[in-house]
Amino acid sequence: MYKRVLLAYDGSQSGQKALLDCREIVQWSQAELHLIAVMPTTVTPVVADGWAYGAETEPADRAEYEAILSAGLRRLTEAGLSARGQVVAGSSVDEIVRCAQAVKADLIVVGHQHRSSWAERWWRGSVSKALIEHAPCSVLVVITA
Fold it and tell me: CATH 3.40.50.620: does it fit domain 4-144?
């Protein structure tokens, strides 16, 4: 039985499905639920094809991730669950593992959507695949088509 569940939530379609599936597991096991949104670390300013990213975008990015987290927490509250949440910054896999260790999670839940092309799979990698290799506990990967 799970005592502490960590859900890495990004607001995507697969994240929404993971949230719903996680809700059922938490209700069944009466586990403590922790929700995190992982914001990529601010990088050195980069400009390419009219797109720029740097330290000046961090406040807006943080606000976006706070909104995603708040929406997830609100959905859980509406379902009658209590959850703690936080926005963390860094590499997705590293931060999910670090948070799982910090809360002593028994289960990590992440959403995953299959990528349609080999190039997309190769270029973007898979957080869920890497997470399975590094997680300190079981990982539930909720798949959306």
Answer: yes
